[in-house]
Specification:
single chain; alpha+beta; CNF1/YfiH-like putative cysteine hydrolases; two-stranded parallel ribbon; two-stranded antiparallel sheet; 4 strands
Length: 105
């Protein structure tokens, strides 16, 4: 929305979804799961709901007009791969990650 407010055409926006927690590792409570459409929550494979944050972000981007071919999703799970920081895995002593946005004018 911010990019569009700056006159960016969604068809020209390229998006990289950085490593984040995978659905396999992203257990959530019912109070969180109920806030999202069932397409993004697995309630059958695990004892508690698991949320697919990558799929949900992609859905939001597509709905905003970003072209599918302009969306790249990193496959790594920050919880499973110790090369990445993970608050869920390591607690509040975990490091943090940073993202960068570039606007061509």
């Amino acid at each position: 929305q911010k990019m569009v407010s700056l006159n960016a055409d969604p068809k020209n926006i390229k998006v990289f979804i950085s490593p984040c927690i995978s659905q396999k590792q992203f257990e959530v409570g019912d109070e969180v799961a109920e806030k999202f459409p069932d397409d993004f929550v697995d309630r059958t494979s695990y004892s508690k709901p698991h949320f697919d944050i990558k799929k949900f972000i992609e859905f939001q981007l597509l709905r905003a007009g970003i072209l599918e071919e302009n969306i790249e999703i990193h496959g790594s799970c920050t919880f499973s791969d110790s090369e990445f920081f993970s608050y869920r895995r390591d607690g509040k002593r975990s490091g943090r990650m940073m993202g960068i946005i570039k606007l061509n004018t």
